[in-house]
Amino acid sequence: MNIASATFVCSSQKLSQCPTGDMCEFAFIGRSNVGKSSLINMLTRRTGLAKVSGTPGKTRLINHFVINDTWALVDLPGYGYAKVSRRERSGFSSLITDYVLNREQLYYLFVLVDARHEPLRIDMEFVRFLGEHGVPFGIVFTKTDKLSQAQLNRNTDLYRRQLAEEWEELPRMFVISSEKGTGRDEILDFIENCLEQS
Ligand SMILES: Nc1nc2c(ncn2[C@@H]2O[C@H](COP(=O)(O)OP(=O)(O)OP(=O)(O)O)[C@@H](O)[C@H]2O)c(=O)[nH]1
Ligand SMILES: [Mg+2]
After folding, report:
1. Is residue 198 part of a domain?
2. Ligand in nearest proximity to the CA of 81
3. Smallest Cα–Cα separation from 34: which of 72, 68, 81, 70?
4. CA angle (49, 171, 153) in 5-degree steps
5. Most-buried pick from 21, 45, 78, 158 (CB within 10 A)?
6. Average pLDDT, stretch 33-56?
7. How far is the CA of 56 from the centre of ligand 1 (A)?
8. Tens digits of residue pLDDT in 132-159
9. Please, which residues have CB less than 5 A from ligand 2, an ion?
10. pLDDT at 83 over 80
11. Which residues does residue 65 pair with via DSSP β-bridges, in sequence order?
């Protein structure tokens, strides 16, 4: 899919502030610093469209970007950030859960996990939460430029095995590097297919 235009729309502090209208939304979620904002910039090929930082907790609001004037990418705040309150760290903030459970325009959620790690409890908990509520999602392995193919295979296998304990059908998986542009076509083709079906 060609991205002819990518425009920042707004940052919302709560669900009621999010844009109205019926554009399909594809949102990115995952631990702080996992690479959500970087992926939005990689997909749109617009450096600096979404704010990236080496310090976790950069994205604190729900950010909407309209693509080709027809659909939207949504950058969500990370979870599991050590400097937020204990309550927010152990659970998921109401901003995130409210958006994920109640946003009618949300078509698909990309759950980003750092490919360098074995499955982390907080990510598995979040995935379980999505399953319990029937939210459609896929898993995106990020920062794959930082590890070897063998390490990548090992960690993706560990995820598959752990997910297979709870899921009859495994979620769709994507392997990306925002640094190298890896996985861009797979994600954009997937979104294009979804849009054709919606
Ligand atoms: N090597 C490498 N670094 C990456 C990649 N993606 C993101 N990063 C780096 O990881 C850090 C965090 O990236 P962000 O995109 O801001 O992460 P985020 O998930 O949006 O973080 P929060 O908004 O804080 O939740 C930055 O220093 C990025 O440059 C990648 O594919 N490869
Ligand atoms: Mg961010």
Report:
1. no
2. 1
3. 81
4. 85
5. 78
6. 94
7. 9
8. 999 999 999 999 999 999 999 999 999 9
9. 36-37, 58-59
10. no
11. 8, 73
Residue with tokens 């509520």: 133
Assign residue 14 the CATH number of its domain.
3.40.50.300
Residue nearest to atom 11 of ligand 1 (CA): 54
The predicted-structure confidence for 157-183, as pLDDT tens digits, reads as follows 999 999 999 889 999 999 999 999 999
Could you tell me how many residues make up the chain?
198
- Report the alpha-carbon distance of residue 137 to residue 190 in Å, rounded: 12
Mean pLDDT of 51-64: 87
- Separation CA 97–CA 33 (nearest Å): 19
Residues touching ligand 1 (Cβ under 6 Å) are: 32-38, 52-54, 56-59, 77-78, 142-143, 145-146, 177-179
75 C-alpha to ligand 1 centroid (Å): 12
Distance of CA 157 to the CA centre of its chain: 20
How crowded is residue 120: how many other Cβ atoms within 10 Å of its Cβ? 13
What are 62's two structure tokens? 């729900």
**Looking at the domain assignment, is residue 166 inside a domain?**
yes
pLDDT, residue 198, reads: 86
Percent of the chain surpassing pLDDT 90:
85
Domains in the chain: how many in total? 1
Let me know if residue 196 belongs to a domain. Answer: no
In this structure, the residue with its CA closest to atom 27 of ligand 1 is 54
Asked if residue 176 belongs to a domain, the reply is yes
Of all atoms in ligand 1, which is nearest to the CA of residue 56?
24
Domain that holds residue 55: 6-191
